[in-house]
């Protein structure tokens, strides 16, 4: 029998009382560990986090909480090797892809630790300036932000067991709000292990960080008005969460990061260098984490006349991608996370093939060191719509997200047509633009900003500098309107808003003067 991973709630490790769900190696098919949340006293778990964890965190100021984050970074840095092993075994990712998750998470924590230092020894944040409420300037209004007196429940997706935890936990803990993380079952091991290391190190106050692995049943029922819930996953589950009474009746604040038909747009008149940048980025986005990235490029918009040239160049790059067992040094792309995901990708491909032609077939990739009957590996597939008219006629290509190494080339007639086609994604996390004309790039960015959380522009001058279409940097907003879930995460200090309550304090200026925070340590 495989090891049963414990849950950490109410300040102690507690094993589920059920048989548990087995986590598998997606390449070898072997059993790794089990998770189970059966029989946990969830009411007690949430109350402990809310009362003990919340009170202890709020007793600290931003600078002190930032220092806690810095200590968490130290703990995690010390165990990186173990995390890479777990990622290889449970997510089937090659080293570079594991790094996006593991080191990406640690990097994000480090950034918020620094922001805590900058915020200094204050216990609340000011929002805007004093505002006069009448003729006499004595009676005024000042908006303040204070940490919400609840817990932050995170329900996460399988593709980022590390980054998905820390990109949310960093701003929550910095804000003074305790965290309960429920990782996706398929890859819960890495999340559980990281929490275990932090708990064992005794860095955070009791109740500040809890982990529940296994079924999500009953979690939402525990939410009370000042709690918040942040969800990352499919649009279907998002709907379940949005319609739960905790949200509809108790006004629990909810943040949703759902699926997204992200795009890359080659502007008309782009130089050969710009075309090359698009080709590289599309091939990279398709293959990093086997395309299991919420930000991955799914639609590639190119001027109709250049479609054939771009198709050939992307296909040539994809053909070089070695796929298979991530333990083999020659392998560049590992596995999908499970047989269920493999099946879902195959079904998705079959759907898109109703509208698009295969330009590069993933099935031509022979798996390295992996048994196709067992391994959840699949080669990258580039699809393409025949011409601009086919781009108009297509429906599934603009609506159906295949969560794997799959993208579709979408030819367009002119810029207006390209913008219209991109908007058929109904709101996405990110679009990237490629070209040389700075004015045209800036115009396109503003044109598309309303339907995207992020617009990433790759012009030749930043070829070696840019951070990548799909890389989520803590300084920039992550989230997207509409179809993408309507959520907002990260974006530097903006992330703290979700974990704070805003109130207007109306009083004599003499009272409002008392609200002024102490000078930040860094400025003192
Ligand atoms: P999912 O099936 O919706 O699962 C996501 C999480 O929700 C898991 O932890 C899951 O737990 C939990 N869950 C399932 N049913 C639930 C319910 N009824 N109530 C409460 N929680 C429930 O999504 P997924 O298949 O893991 O993730 C893939 C999707 O996530 C893709 O579509 C991708 O685009 C999206 N995604 C978006 C972002 C973003 O930032 N926008 C990032 C990553 C992924 P179990 O695992 O135990 O079922």
Please characterize this protein's 3D structure.
With about 525 residues, the protein is an alpha/beta fold. The protein has two domains: about 5-260 and about 490-515, Aldehyde Dehydrogenase, Chain A, domain 1 (3-Layer(aba) Sandwich), CATH 3.40.605.10; about 265-475, Aldehyde Dehydrogenase, Chain A, domain 2 (3-Layer(aba) Sandwich). About 35% of the residues lie in helices and about 20% in strands. It is built from 16 helices and 22 strands. It has helices at about 40-60, 60-75, 80-90, 95-120, 165-175, 190-200, 235-240, 245-250, 270-285, 305-320, 340-350, 390-395, 395-400, 415-425, 440-450, 510-515; strands at about 5, 5-10, 10-15, 20-25, 30-35, 125-130, 140-145, 150-155, 180, 210, 230, 255, 265, 300-305, 355-360, 380-385, 405-410, 430-435, 450-460, 475-480, 490, 500-510. A seven-stranded mixed sheet has the order 15-16-17-14-13-18-19, with helices on both faces. A five-stranded parallel sheet has the order 10-9-8-11-12, with helices on both faces. Strand 6 (about 125-130) and strand 7 (about 140-145) form a beta hairpin. Helix 2 runs antiparallel to helix 4. It starts with a strand and ends in an 11-residue tail after the last helix. The model has no long low-confidence stretch (mean pLDDT about 95). Bound molecules: NADP nicotinamide-adenine-dinucleotide phosphate (NAP). The site of NADP nicotinamide-adenine-dinucleotide phosphate (NAP) has 25 residues, from helix 7.
């Amino acid at each position: 029998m495989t090891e049963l991973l414990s849950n950490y709630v109410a300040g102690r490790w507690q094993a589920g009382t059920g048989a548990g769900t087995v986590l598998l190696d997606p390449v070898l098919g072997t059993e790794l560990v089990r998770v189970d949340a059966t029989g946990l006293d969830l009411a007690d778990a949430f109350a402990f986090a809310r009362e003990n964890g919340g009170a202890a965190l709020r007793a600290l100021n931003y600078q002190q909480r930032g220092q806690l984050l810095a200590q968490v970074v130290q703990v995690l840095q010390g165990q990186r090797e173990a995390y890479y092993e777990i990622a290889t075994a449970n997510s089937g990712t090659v080293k570079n892809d594991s790094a996006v998750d593991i080191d990406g998470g640690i990097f994000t924590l480090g950034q918020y630790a620094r922001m805590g230092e900058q915020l200094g020894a204050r216990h609340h944040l000011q929002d805007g300036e004093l505002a006069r409420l009448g003729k006499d300037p004595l009676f005024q209004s000042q908006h303040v932000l204070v940490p919400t007196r609840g817990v932050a429940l995170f329900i996460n997706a399988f593709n980022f067991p590390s980054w998905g935890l820390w990109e949310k936990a960093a701003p929550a803990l910095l804000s003074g709000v305790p965290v309960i993380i429920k990782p996706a079952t398929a890859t819960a091991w890495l999340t559980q292990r990281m929490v275990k290391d932090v708990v064992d190190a005794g860095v955070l106050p009791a109740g500040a960080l809890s982990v529940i692995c296994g079924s999500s049943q009953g979690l939402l029922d525990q939410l009370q008005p000042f709690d918040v819930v942040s969800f990352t996953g499919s649009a279907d589950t998002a709907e379940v969460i949005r319609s739960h009474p905790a949200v509809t009746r108790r006004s629990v604040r909810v943040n949703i990061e759902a699926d997204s038909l992200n795009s890359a747009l080659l502007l008309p008149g782009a130089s050969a260098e710009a075309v090359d940048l698009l080709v590289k980025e599309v091939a990279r986005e398709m293959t990093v984490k086997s395309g299991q990235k919420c930000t991955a490029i799914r639609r590639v918009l190119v001027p109709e006349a250049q479609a054939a040239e771009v198709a050939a160049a992307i296909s040539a790059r994809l053909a070089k991608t070695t796929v298979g067992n991530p333990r083999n040094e020659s392998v560049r792309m590992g596995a999908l996370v499970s047989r269920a995901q493999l099946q879902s990708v195959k079904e998705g491909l079959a759907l898109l093939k109703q509208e698009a032609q295969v330009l590069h077939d993933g099935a031509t990739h022979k798996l390295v060191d992996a048994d196709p009957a067992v391994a959840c590996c699949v080669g990258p597939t580039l699809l393409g719509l025949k011409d601009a008219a086919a781009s108009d006629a297509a429906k599934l290509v603009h609506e159906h997200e295949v969560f794997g190494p799959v993208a579709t080339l979408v030819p367009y007639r002119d810029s207006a047509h390209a913008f219209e086609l991109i908007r058929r994604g109904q709101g996405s996390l990110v679009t990237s633009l490629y070209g040389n004309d700075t004015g045209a790039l800036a115009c396109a960015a503003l044109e598309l900003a309303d339907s995207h959380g992020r617009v990433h522009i790759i012009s030749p001058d930043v070829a070696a500098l840019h951070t990548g279409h799909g890389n989520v940097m803590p300084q920039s907003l992550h989230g997207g309107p509409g179809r993408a879930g309507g959520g907002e995460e990260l974006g530097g200090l903006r992330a703290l808003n979700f974990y704070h309550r805003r109130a207007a304090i109306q009083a004599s200026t003499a009272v409002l003067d008392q609200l002024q925070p102490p000078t930040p340590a860094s400025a003192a």
